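Batch job 17 of 40 flagged for manual review because the log was empty.
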Amino acid sequence: MGMVTQSERKNIENLSDNLPVPRWIRVPQAVKYSNLSRAFVYRLLAEGKIKSISLKGDKKRGARLIDRESIDAYFDLLSEASN
């Protein structure tokens, strides 16, 4: 598990022609944004440390969207705890 600094997250936000990363992102985007493993992202979701919503239509399966701001808040808490 690698920690991503605030400036690295800002650099990621500025990718794709300087378009910001949307607030709600899919799991693969969250993995890239946070530099955490997919399994660890799901663990944080299960523990309630980051927030998500599930968009389900008429099908059993839906899209899970993760609140990018909750990822930032998680890293901020880690940073504060290490100081």
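Reviewer: the log was empty due to a logging misconfiguration, but the result itself is present. The two ends are 19 Å apart (CA to CA). Unflagging and moving on to job 18.
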